[in-house]
Amino acid sequence: xxxxxxxxxxxxxALNATTILAITDTKGKIIFANEKFxxxxxxxxxxxxxxxxxxxxxxxxxxxxxxxLWQTISKGQTWRGEIQNKTKDGTLxxxxxxxxxxxxxxxxxxxxxxIRHDITERKLLEHKIQQQLIxxxxxxxxxxxxxxxxxxxxxxxxxxxxxxxxxVDDFKSFNESLGxxxxxxxxxxxxxxxxxxxxxERNILAKTYGDEFALVVxxxxxxxxxxxxxxxxxxxxxxxxxxxxxxxxISMGAVHYPTYATCYEELFQHANRAxxxxxxxxxxTFIFFNDSIIEDTNRRLELKNLLYEAIQNKRFTMxxxxxxxxxGELTSFEALVRWHDPIQGxxxxxxxxxxxxxxxxxxxxxxxxxxxxxxxxxxxxxAVGQKIQVAFNLSLKQxxxxxxxxxxxxxxxVYKVDPHDIKLEITESVxxxxxxxxxxxxxxxxxxxxxxxxDDYGTGFSSLQYLKDFQINCIKIDQSFVKDLLIHxxxxxxxxxxxxxxxxxxxxxxxxxxxxxxxxxxxxxxxxDSFQGYFLGKPQPxxxxxxxx
Length: 549
Description:
Layout: H1 3-18, E1 20-25, E2 30-33, H2 35-41, H3 45-48, H4 63-74, E3 79-86, E4 92-103, E5 109-118, H5 120-134, H6 144-156, E6 161-168, H7 172-178, H8 180-198, E7 204-207, E8 212-218, H9 221-234, E9 239-241, E10 244-246, E11 250-257, H10 264-280, E12 286-288, H11 291-313, E13 316-325, E14 330-341, E15 345-347, H12 349-359, H13 362-384, E16 389-393, H14 396-399, H15 404-414, E17 422-427, H16 428-431, H17 435-447, E18 451-457, H18 464-467, E19 474-477, H19 479-483, H20 489-505, E20 508-512, H21 517-525, E21 530-532, E22 540-541, H22 542-548
Parallel strand pairs: 11-12, 14-16, 16-17, 17-18, 18-19, 19-20, 20-21
Antiparallel strand pairs: 1-2, 1-5, 3-4, 4-5, 6-8, 6-11, 7-8, 9-10, 13-14, 13-21, 13-22, 14-15
Helix pairs in contact: 7-8, 11-12, 13-15, 13-22
């Protein structure tokens, strides 16, 4: 054998060991295939010769893919790409492919040589890495990245859809009581439950952040509402884990595309805004996004900034509403905050107090207002010409502030106000939170000499089991009961029973919102101890009482 011939055999051996080689005619029929082609495709040579590459087509690529391939090589240009093929027994494999046209004297292709290399392992590794990028490790559901890319693809074709952001209510309690691992298993079960909704549908379910999921419902808004109701129905049944049934509630925010968004970021942001509003509305509900939510959100952000500045610059004033006993004697005032912004004008407490609560500004605001009350206390007492008390409302966050008692007593000392002249009012929502701690804090406040009243009684949750243990002085009947007491017998029954119960427990009773003489006479007849309302006097600034005198 000549050295030249041996060199050719060596080249062929090298190619068979490393390269998949085939030659086709201009119609794509295989006229040559090397051993490596037969080995990887699992077809014997006689089954390949005369066939086109359709024999190994996996169906993975769109027809346009091969149309573009043929357009390229028909022009005499080399084509390169990655192709997924299928072996005779159905196994899928990937090849990195070069197709090189052989040209005649006229520059026209007369056959094509394809040179391929097996890249299946690389593609499997890429797929594994891609799965790690798009799959949530806890639930096994697609993650935020997958959701974003999927929604953006739908937006390209302008497909109508609704994005739902789904949050598990109070999931933090699972982490705190069970630990993170066990809580994650419950989260996985929640994901499996939600997956029942999308089974057999084109809708997209994803796990986004923490204890939140997202669901894309294709179609119009009414279609999304049907799915929302299915989800709530689904969660009427508990999730069983570790032989225990856990009842789960969820809150949802929904936004329709293309009505309220032009891009994914805007769509997701709006759905989250609606979700947050649903949670503020008491949870276990849903909100559909609309333009007014943007206005409300912008307004809340604006007020948050203004509120921070107003606290820094002490732009608040206090108004005092008189409280009378059943002998018609003035005994005390309730201090009520007023805010007049230089640009916005008068801003209602009903608007800015909830924002202060949510942002944590309620604590510095509360102490600022308490200080304002103490600053004006002696002047107010001098203006009315008698000894009086002032009632001040404590928010939930301020009530549980670890510095509460020290801060209050310190301010009283600075302004030389006797703590016995201060009445602190807490709402039922405060009283129903961590009851043992509430009892302890009330006891500390009473030991300072301050009185404590339970405000808005009847509107929240009161546990009679613990009410008897509260060392409070007074129960305030909420104005919502007083307003219609002469119309609705149920209001009368609540008021009558409250007065009787309070007296038996050793508490006094103050009715707020008294607006007519008829209401006043009825309450007085039933033994109510104190009264407050427009019939007796509106909230007024200190200057009003100074002018009256």
